[in-house]
Design goal:
The complex is a heterodimer of chains A (about 200) and B (about 200). Chain A is an all-alpha fold and about 200 residues long. Chain A has nine helices and two strands, in the order ααααααααββα. Chain B contains four helices and five strands. The chains are: A mainly alpha (about 200), B alpha+beta (about 200).
């Protein structure tokens, strides 16, 4: 393990930023990024679950028998997802109403199981926490960026506030499902161009 | 064999911990979640019905046992006196149950206002019960009757054109609300006394 904690953290922000580099977790990426607020809300919820599930999985990695590890990971993840769901209902109810079914669906998000299996079950607690935080923040940034693009072009607003004059005609294609695919494709394209050596 | 026992033990312990944690969290947040749900789902209807009251009707709520069910009442305080209560009753609509919030002026036994909380009626047809304010406005100030019926059925309610089933559902909810109110009035008055200053 030559990598430092900082490296583990930073790699989630660019090198392995989930929806764009790993191309994982696309269900929420495509479905909830109709606005910045939804995107960031979803990202924060996922990051929270990711950090805690990584920590717990890593702490229990010596106890969990290899044959039932996936079941154990899912129990840990599902527990934290339910925690997030209850907390969101209690404190940010309007956001909970908007995200709806996608909160419980974090359980089946590939990023979580992927990080638990590929990283947390093989590394120490601190490294896993840094990894979870990095990937989680990367996911939030990606969803935020996608959400901004779609909200600005699709509804002419940013965080619910109008950015263009009243003459602006919303390009409503962007807030529909096909717009999500097109946006994601363009983002991937830009990321690949930028990453080309 | 040893491995098998270990698998069972680890999974059982992990699941029990998860269950215990979630049960505790649920108990802890239940009250807040209930308040949030009332505020964001039923709040707009309650506030519209009890317009001008000096308190927060969602905080000043109480429950009365009505046979097997408990009914919630929301108190509206006007000029320092609890003059109106709002309660919800359910009517059967075209697409499912319609939640109807009924405000009752306690001194005069008149309807103070009616609002739709939840429904799954057809947009543009039955959903106008919620979106078109003129439909619910017809009930304001109407004395409580034993039955509410749409005009086509020989009653007094102006139905929404093209949405007779929805209008019947709302009328049935009003009929139920007035029956409940009459049945519980003595207890209701007792409870309301505690709110006057």
């Amino acid at each position: 393990m030559a990598k430092t904690l900082t490296q583990e953290f930073v790699k989630g922000l660019w090198e392995e930023i989930p929806p764009f580099r790993l191309v994982l977790g696309l269900c929420p990426t495509l479905a909830v990024t109709k606005s910045v607020e939804n995107g960031i809300g979803m990202g924060v919820a996922t990051a929270f679950v990711l950090v805690f599930s990584n920590i717990l999985v890593s702490a229990l990695r010596k106890i969990i028998p290899a044959k039932v590890r996936i079941a154990c990971f899912i129990i840990v993840i599902a527990t934290f997802v339910t925690v997030v769901e209850l907390l969101m209902q209690a404190f940010t109810y309007p956001l909970f109403l908007k995200l709806g079914i996608f909160i419980p669906l974090i359980v089946v998000n590939c990023i979580l199981l992927g990080r638990a299996e590929a990283f947390a079950s093989k590394n120490g607690v601190l490294a896993s926490a840094a990894d979870g935080l990095g990937i989680g923040i990367g996911f939030t940034l990606a969803l935020g960026a996608l959400g901004s693009l779609r909200e600005i072009l699709g509804s002419g607003t940013f965080f619910g506030k109008a950015v263009f004059g009243p003459a602006f005609q919303p390009f409503s294609f962007m807030v529909e499902a096909p717009g999500a695919f097109v946006c994601l494709g363009l983002m991937l394209c830009l990321m690949n161009l930028a990453g080309k050596k | 064999m040893r491995e098998m026992i270990k698998m069972v033990v680890v999974l059982t312990v992990l699941s029990s911990f998860s269950g215990g944690l979630l049960a505790a969290l649920r108990n802890g947040t239940q009250e807040r979640i209930e308040y949030q749900q009332l505020k964001f789902v039923k709040g707009p209807a309650i506030r519209a019905i009890l317009k001008g009251c000096s308190n927060d009707p969602i905080v000043d709520r109480f429950k009365i046992k009505d046979g097997d069910v408990e009914r919630s009442f929301f108190v509206g305080i006007f000029d320092g006196k609890p003059k109106a209560v709002a309660m919800e009753s359910i009517g059967k609509g075209f697409g499912g149950p319609i939640g109807v919030m009924v405000g009752i002026d306690v001194d005069a036994d008149k309807i103070a206002g009616v609002g739709i909380t939840t429904h799954s009626e057809t947009p543009g047809v039955g959903a106008r019960a919620k979106t078109d304010p003129t439909f619910v406005a017809q009930f304001k100030g109407v004395p409580l009757a034993d039955t509410f019926k749409v005009k086509a059925d020989g009653g007094q309610v102006d139905a929404l054109s093209g949405a007779t089933v929805t209008s019947r559902g709302v009328s049935a909810a009003l009929t139920e609300a007035s029956a409940v109110y009459k049945r519980l009035k003595p207890k209701l008055i007792e409870k309301l006394k505690t709110y006057s200053k």
